[in-house]
């Protein structure tokens, strides 16, 4: 499903971004979107273009951003003139993951009862091809979001990783399942168990085929259950307080 390619030059040409931004502002001038820029691009205006736009938080995927992304995807899905969708971030970050500051004080009960992150998979259910143009950090939920897309074009500065273990939790939006398919079990295990990042070149490996649905359900429940641990709280609190986490295996 996810194909890691060498360059995003086509989509991230110097100068292209500023003209994109001005058109995108016009497109979202109605104040519809706060966290993303949305426009139609291409010679025939048939490419739906969505840029994640929370630069100060490295495009961390807060609830508001994910709701807006769902809305924009729905609009492009319904627009008969749009043939494909491009999802991108900035040179520095595609997305640095789910918003840790928002998650920090969540409880197990809230996560489990509310099926936290359940709505994140909209990207993977869109029927039109979605292309992720990735540069900079694609970490945690950012890596998972990219892998939900049909194709990944990765720039030279792209870094993929699932660093949730460093926060005392696990990937919760398909990372354990899709990463295995994208880069193979061995490298996926190494990344998920160490939090180490890889470049686009390193990501190019043969794919594994697994049944996604069961794996994703199990993963979601395990992710929720990390919110019942002291270490998950400590990991996220340490990040917010800019200090090293003091894990106690509890
Ligand atoms: N959530 C909330 N804020 C984040 C964030 C995140 N995931 N990632 C970065 N930020 C914020 C930082 O808090 C910081 O904000 P302030 O200036 O207000 O403190 C700002 O973005 C810039 O970040 P840094 O100063 O840390 O920048 P850096 O260049 O030193 O480091 C980084 C960059 C390596 C990406 C580092 O920010 C980092 O490790 N981020 C967290 C990555 C992560 O753990 N992602 C997984 C989240 S959990 C998840 O996604 C679960 C899931 O499966 C859905």
From TrEMBL:
Q: Which family does it belong to?
A: Belongs to the enoyl-CoA hydratase/isomerase family.
Q: How does it assemble?
A: Homohexamer; dimer of trimers.
Query: Which SUPFAM superfamilies does this one have?
Result: ClpP/crotonase
Taxonomy, superkingdom: Eukaryota
Keyword flag Signal: yes
Molecular functions (GO terms):
delta(3)-delta(2)-enoyl-CoA isomerase activity; enoyl-CoA hydratase activity
Q: Which organism is it from?
A: Hucho hucho
One Pfam family in the UniProt entry? ECH_1
Enzyme Commission number(s) of this protein: 4.2.1.17, 5.3.3.8
- Pathway listed for it? Lipid metabolism; fatty acid beta-oxidation
Signal peptide boundaries: 1-18
Q: Where in the cell is it found?
A: Mitochondrion matrix
Which GO biological process annotations does it have?
A: fatty acid beta-oxidation
State which residue ranges cross the membrane: none
Reaction catalysis annotation: (3S)-hydroxydecanoyl-CoA = (2E)-decenoyl-CoA + H2O; 3-hydroxypropanoyl-CoA = acryloyl-CoA + H2O; 3-hydroxyisovaleryl-CoA = 3-methylbut-2-enoyl-CoA + H2O; 2-methylpropenoyl-CoA + H2O = (S)-3-hydroxyisobutanoyl-CoA
Q: What is this protein called?
A: Enoyl-CoA hydratase, mitochondrial
**One GO cellular component term noted in the UniProt record for this chain:** mitochondrial matrix
Q: What is its main location?
A: mitochondrion
Which keywords label this protein? Acetylation, Fatty acid metabolism, Isomerase, Lipid metabolism, Lyase, Mitochondrion, Signal, Transit peptide
């Amino acid at each position: 499903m996810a194909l890691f390619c060498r360059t995003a030059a086509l989509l991230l040409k110097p100068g292209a971004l500023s003209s994109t931004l001005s058109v995108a502002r016009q497109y979202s001038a109605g104040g519809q979107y706060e966290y993303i820029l949305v426009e139609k691009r291409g010679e025939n205006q048939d490419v739906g273009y969505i840029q994640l736009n929370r630069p100060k938080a490295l495009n961390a995927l807060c609830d508001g951003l994910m709701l807006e992304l769902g809305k924009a995807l729905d609009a492009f899905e319904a627009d008969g003139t749009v043939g494909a969708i491009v999802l991108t971030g900035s040179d520095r970050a595609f997305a640095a993951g789910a918003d840790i500051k928002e998650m920090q004080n969540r409880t197990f009960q809230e996560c489990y009862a509310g099926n936290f992150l359940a709505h994140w998979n909209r990207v993977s259910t869109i029927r039109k091809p979605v292309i992720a143009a990735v540069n900079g950090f694609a970490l945690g939920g950012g890596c998972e979001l990219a892998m939900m897309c049909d194709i990944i074009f990765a720039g030279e500065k792209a870094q993929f990783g699932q660093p949730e273990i460093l926060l005392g939790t696990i990937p919760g939006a398909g990372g354990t399942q899709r990463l295995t398919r994208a880069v193979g079990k061995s490298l996926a295990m190494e990344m998920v168990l160490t939090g180490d990042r890889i470049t686009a070149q390193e990501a190019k490996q043969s794919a594994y085929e697994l049944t996604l649905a069961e794996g994703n359900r199990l993963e979601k429940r395990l992710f929720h259950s990390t919110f019942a641990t002291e270490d998950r709280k400590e990991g996220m609190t340490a990040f917010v307080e800019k200090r090293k986490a003091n894990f106690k295996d509890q």
